[in-house]
Amino acid sequence: MIRFAHTEYLYLLLLIPVFIGIYAAWSIWRKNALKRFGDYEVIKKLMPSQSKSKALVKFIILMLAYTFFIVGIADPQVGSRLEKVKREGIDIYIALDVSNSMLAEDIKPNRLERAKMAISNLVDKLQGDRIGIIVFAGHAYKQLPLTTDYNAAKLFLSAVDTKTVPTQGTAIGEAINMAASSFGDSKNNKAIIIITDGENHEDNPVKAAEEAAKKGIKVFTIGMGLPDGAPIPVYDRNGNRIGFKKDKHGKTVITKLDEDMLRQIAAAGNGSYVRASNASTGLSKILDDINKIQKQEIETRQFTDYEDRFQIFIAIALGLLLLELLISDRKSKLSEKFDFFGTEK
Questions:
Q1: pLDDT, tens digit, for every residue of 191-216?
Q2: Regarding the domain delimited by 84-300, which CATH topology (the fold level of the hierarchy) does it fall under?
C-alpha cells in the first residue's frame, strides 16, 4: 500500500509540459538567431565543438531530477505492516436527494447544503460502522461503496451537488433498491437513511422500503424542508441567482415537503421519520435509533504502519543534478576525432 503524505505538491508536476514548451521555444529562438548571422550550415561548421544533443540530454536529466524531487517532497509512504482490525458496527447507506428542489432555502443555507453538513457531522460520530453514499434525482447513482474510511466519505460528500445526477426527478424507490442490493452478501445489520424533500414522481418508494424490510434492512427517512415550502432558485453558469423556477404558465414553482410519503416509507421499512428544521436536521435522532440496532463484529484490514520513502527520491534527484553539472555543453574530444557524417574531405 502506497500513499503520499503531501499530495498537494504533486500538482507541481503539471509544470513539466510548461518547461518542455519553454525549452522548445528557446531552441527555435537560438536557431533563428544563428541564422541571422549567415548560412546556418556554415555557422555550425564554425562552431564544431558545440553539441546540440548534449543540451537535450542535460534538459532531460533536469526534468527527471525535477520529477523525483517533487515526488520526494510529496513524501511517498509504504505500508509496512498489514493488520487485521476487528470492529463492531452496522452497514449504513445514506441516499441523498440532489434534485433541484433541494436548492430551496426554507432550510438555511439551502436543503442540500444543510443535509451535507449534517451527514458530515454524522460521519464524525460513527465508530466502526461502514458507510456508503448514494445520490439520486431522476435516477440513483452509487457515489461511494461501503467503507470505514470516513475521510474518503467526507471527500466524496463534498463533491456532491445538483449537477451530480444529470436527470432531474426524485426516484426514491430506485435509491432504496440500489442501496439494498449494494449491501451484497454482508452479514452485518443494515440501515438505509433517505434524506429528501419527499416529492417523489418516479416510482413506488413504499414498496421498495417493504422489500428492503423483508431482507432485514431498516429504512429511515429525514424530510428536508418545511411544509409551507419555498421557491426553487435558478442560477447562471457563474453561480449567480437569476430568479426562481417557473411553470409553463409563468407562475413561480413552490416545492413543499411531502411528510406523508416519508412517514409511509419509514413505516414500511421498520424505521422512523424525522423532519429537519433550521434548528436541527434530525440526524442525531436517527443515529440514536440506529445505535439501538444490534451491532455485529466486522473484520477489516488496515495498513497500520507507514514508512517514509522520500529519502530515496530526493537522493536520486540530487544525483541527477550532479550528473547534469558534470556533462559539458561541448562535444567530447573523443567524438571530435571521428567524422560520423562524412563531412571531412
A1: 999 999 887 666 889 999 999 999 99
A2: Rossmann fold (3.40.50)
